[in-house]
Amino acid sequence: MSGHKDYGFLGIEQRKAILAYFSSFVRKLPVSYITFVYRRSQFEGPARLMERTGRDISSAMVKHLGFFQSFDDVKVYYDNGQDIVKQALDRSVGKVLSKGVVRRRKTSMTDYRLEQVADYLCTIELALAKYETKDDGETYNKFFGGIGSFKRNWLKQARSKRI
């Protein structure tokens, strides 16, 4: 969306079209997701935030344990962008699932489509959080329109994939 790196030479209309195509791709995939939104300012420090994040991940995994146990392998792909998230994932997944079925991989966004799908879904959820706090900025408005248009189109499509 922001036009960095390989997308720097594309205009906003071209980037919007690519995002719309990617959204269509996501709509057809057999994926499910859950997200958590936190504000760092609401926690006493990074340790408390990591504790809460880990607890929420563990609770969601336990709630949907049958889903996770239906797979022979569970692969955790994370780009190690935020250490708090990495540690919370490692602890939670290791606690809830058998260590023998979990494989961890450090990845980059360009290596795996599924990671790009996860990034897209997180972007949609972050956009909602930004719209709700009126911190949406010009980029979200350019790509998604106002909050009504965003909810009717982008959020509705993404939320149909939620666990």
Outline the structure in words:
- With 163 residues, the protein is mostly helical.
- It has 7 helices and 2 strands; from the N terminus they run αααβαβααα.
- It has helices at 12-28, 46-63, 65-69, 83-96, 113-132, 137-144, 147-159, and strands at 74-78, 102-106.
- It has a two-stranded parallel ribbon.
- Strand 1 (74-78), helix 4 (83-96) and strand 2 form a beta-alpha-beta unit.
- Helix 2 (46-63) runs parallel beside helix 4 and helix 5 packs antiparallel against helix 7 (147-159).
- The protein is globular.
- It starts with 11 loop residues before the first helix and ends with a helix.
Strands, helices and their partners?
Elements: H1 12-28, H2 46-63, H3 65-69, E1 74-78, H4 83-96, E2 102-106, H5 113-132, H6 137-144, H7 147-159
Parallel strand pairs: 1-2
Helix pairs in contact: 2-4, 5-7
